Amino acid sequence: MAYTIKKTEMIDYAPEHLNSFEVSAYEWIDNLHFILNPQDCVENAEAYMAIARQRFLEEGWHGDGDIGLIWVPPFMIKEYRPGYTKGVIVWHVKQLEDGISWLLYPKEIFEENAEE
Questions:
Q1: 89 and 10 in contact (C-beta within 8 Å)?
Q2: In this predicted model, what pLDDT tens digit does every residue of 22-44 receive, in sequence order?
Q3: Which residues lie closer than 8 Å to 40 by C-beta, 6 or more apart?
Q4: How far apart are alpha carbons 33 and 19 in whole angstroms?
């Protein structure tokens, strides 16, 4: 097998760090075959998922669907951002009622003029 980081190395921040992330909605992410289960990627997944769940609910999520992870490779990030050489983990949930995807991600990562 080719080299890859372990799933347990993908998230290198504490659950509370999710409170500083940006939340946005997107219509529609219809290919969910690549969504990872947080429980496969972090030991205390429930602590992370509780904060993600709360953040999504505060923004209008209806509370249905499964929270998962999307990996965005570093080459998809427009400009180099120190600390993101492994890519970015985006927290995701697809609302069952209308198919809207809710995303939770580090806000600085996709900003045009983010501070280095």
A1: yes
A2: 999 999 899 999 999 999 999 99
A3: 7
A4: 27
- Predicted TM-score (pTM) of the model is 0.88
- 111 CA to centre of own chain: 16
Q: Say how many C-beta atoms besides its own lie within 10 A of residue 20's C-beta.
A: 10
β-bridge partners, 101: 26, 94
Distance, in Å, from the CA atom of 24 to the CA atom of 27, rounded to the nearest integer, reads: 10
Domains in the chain: boundaries: 13-107
Mean per-residue pLDDT for 41-63? 97
Distance from C-alpha of 116 to C-alpha of 102, rounded to nearest angstrom: 27
Token digits for 105? 């991600």
Cβ atoms of residues 92 and 101 within 8 Å? yes
Helix (H), strand (E), coil (C) string for 53-114: HHHHHHHCCCCCCCEEEEEECHHHCCCCCCCCCCCEEEEEEECCCCCCEEEEECHHHHCCCC
